[in-house]
Amino acid sequence: MTEINVDSELPPSVARFVLHWGDLGGQWGVNRSVAQIHALLFISDKPLTAEDIAHQLGMARSNVSNSIKELLGWKLIHRVPVMGDRRDHFAADTDIWEMAIKIAEGRKAREIDPAEAALRVCNEEAENDPQVSPEARQKLADMLDFVTTMSRWHEEMTKVPKPALTALIKMGSGVTKLINWRPGKKSED
After folding, report:
1. Alpha carbon distance 14, 33 (integer Å)
2. Which of 71, 82, 166, 177 lies in disulfide reach of 77, CB 3.0 to 4.6 Å?
3. Does a structural domain hold residue 4?
4. Strand order through the sheet with 85-92
5. pLDDT in tens, 135-151
């Protein structure tokens, strides 16, 4: 776990959050520094400059600049003008739902969409290739169907208004009751 700068004014609970978010980011495939900067900006009461971030997190200014560019690309942070200061100040979006949607959209664009495109090509090539067994073709088709279905589901879920989506998620096991499904019950694909 990267340590927070000892000269930082961060309260211990905030420092712990920033460090933990950084570790989680690493598990999600996001650079630890990027995740820590996002956490710091998310929890901060005011916009911060790159210098403020570098000081509080004990990071090199160049690392902070590169991480800020990545966060701006994900649209998880934005520039905030501050009267009388020419430096760029940054703040994170604090709507947790919007943040989750932006992260999901970014990951879909970087991971799922290319996988779906590659699977389409694989299926097209395998269709007329006598060296590919019917079983292998079926597995490729099933994989493409699964990825396409999940991609469509993602698109539909992003259109659901936040209150309805929140209610749906909070239903928990009530969703399975609504669709009359229970563990061990045979699916009627």
Report:
1. 16
2. 71
3. no
4. 48-49, 85-92, 77-82
5. 999 999 999 999 999 99
Which of residues 8 and 99 earns the better pLDDT score?
Answer: 99
Q: Can you give the pLDDT at residue 105?
A: 87
Indicate whether 61 and 109 sit together in one domain.
no
Q: Is residue 32 a contact partner of residue 22, using CB atoms and an 8 Å limit?
A: yes
Helix, strand and coil content of the chain, in percent to the nearest 5, comes to 65, 10, 25
What is the H or E stretch that residue 138 is in? Answer: helix 134-159
Tell whether 67 and 126 lie within a shared domain.
no
DSSP 6-67: TT----HHHHHHHHHHHHHHHHTTS-HHHHHHHHHHHH-SS-EEHHHHHHHHT--HHHHHHH
Mean pLDDT of 92-111: 88
